[in-house]
Specification:
The protein is of the alpha/beta class. It has one domain: Vaccinia Virus protein VP39 (Rossmann fold, 3-Layer(aba) Sandwich). Helices cover 43% and strands 22% of the residues. The protein is built from ten helices and ten strands. The strands form two sheets. It has an eight-stranded mixed β-sheet, with helices on both faces. Strand 4, helix 7 and strand 5 form a beta-alpha-beta unit. Bound molecules: S-adenosylmethionine. The site of S-adenosylmethionine has 23 residues, from helix 6, strand 4 and helix 8. S-adenosylmethionine (SAM) binds next to helix 6, strand 4 and helix 8.
Length: 265
């Protein structure tokens, strides 16, 4: 925890604001979406759902496939955890979730793929920003009981365009990708380890196009995640990468020169 705080401090002093950005594409993205401070109506609806989950003491049998939670993760282990605990420790923070919402609103993707549904909070932030009649959302979760609760949450907020694929992503992702032609917006938030992160990134890259947006969660969370992030930004197909510390954004736009930005958010 102390190391993470020190890393953040180091990042904070080296990262810049919009005046350090000379690319019009990044400047607009940063000022209109990343730094946007508007309070959207959906935020309060989703905040209510989060509060509901935080006060829910129901115990779930948790199947943990990877380092997806910041508390006690054992590979392929089973244990009981309350919905409240999952909502507090594994779910996305409001700040990051609201950014996902703004990014979906800004880019208007038609196909969204998410690895790591958990209770469906991040999925719902993306879904509520999207036009449900035109957007296909596919999200992956390994734990059946958590996935069931996520489905309930999707129903509660009347989001019918979300498909949840239950099972180990190592197996479900390759199968699902076969049936997809292209992906516009991807959020990687499942197994926070080096090898799975790179492996999932390389697989989804096959379905990306020039304007696909790829977002990785917790890029500085562990040495493994930092190593994966550093390799991803060096990938020959990646042109623009933005480090926001809590999240990393990847773009493949061929019209951009290869550039990396450390930006405060
Ligand atoms: C950090 S949580 C996701 C949080 C969620 N995106 C949100 O913001 O509310 C990571 C989730 O990924 C799932 N997960 C991790 N590794 C997995 C794997 N190999 N296959 C399927 N699900 C996995 C975990 O069960 C966990 O629910």
């Amino acid at each position: 925890m102390l190391l993470y705080a020190l890393k953040y401090l180091y990042f904070y002093f080296k990262a810049g604001y919009q005046h350090t950005v000379y690319s019009p594409f990044i400047y607009e993205l940063y000022t209109l979406a990343i730094q946007d401070k508007k309070e959207y109506y959906a935020f309060s609806e989703l905040e209510n759902l989060c509060q509901e989950l935080i006060s829910d003491r129901t115990q779930l049998e948790v199947t943990d496939f990877g380092a997806g939670s910041k508390i006690g993760s054992n590979k392929n282990s089973f244990n009981k955890r309350s919905i409240s605990e999952i909502a507090r420790h594994s779910a996305i923070t409001q700040k990051k979730a609201q950014l996902l919402f703004r990014l979906v609103e800004y880019f208007k993707p038609k196909t969204i793929l998410e690895l790591g549904t958990s209770l469906g909070i991040s999925t719902l932030f993306m879904a509520l920003a999207a036009d449900s009649s035109k957007t296909q959302i596919i999200t992956f979760e390994g734990c059946p009981q958590i996935a069931e609760k996520a489905k309930e949450n999707f129903e509660e907020l009347e989001q019918e365009n979300i498909e949840i694929i239950v099972g180990n992503i190592d197996k479900t992702l390759p199968k699902t990708l076969i049936s997809l032609t292209s992906l516009d917006f991807i959020f990687l938030d499942a197994n926070h380890r080096y090898e799975p992160t790179l492996n999932y990134f390389n697989q989804i890259l096959e379905k990306c196009h020039n304007d696909t947006v790829i977002i990785l969660d917790d890029i500085h969370w562990s040495e493994g995640m930092e190593k994966a992030w550093k390799e991803i930004i060096k990938h020959e197909k990646v042109t623009v990468s933005i480090d926001l510390f809590q999240l990393g954004l990847i773009f493949l736009r061929k019209e951009q020169p290869k550039q990396h930005f450390d930006l405060r958010f």
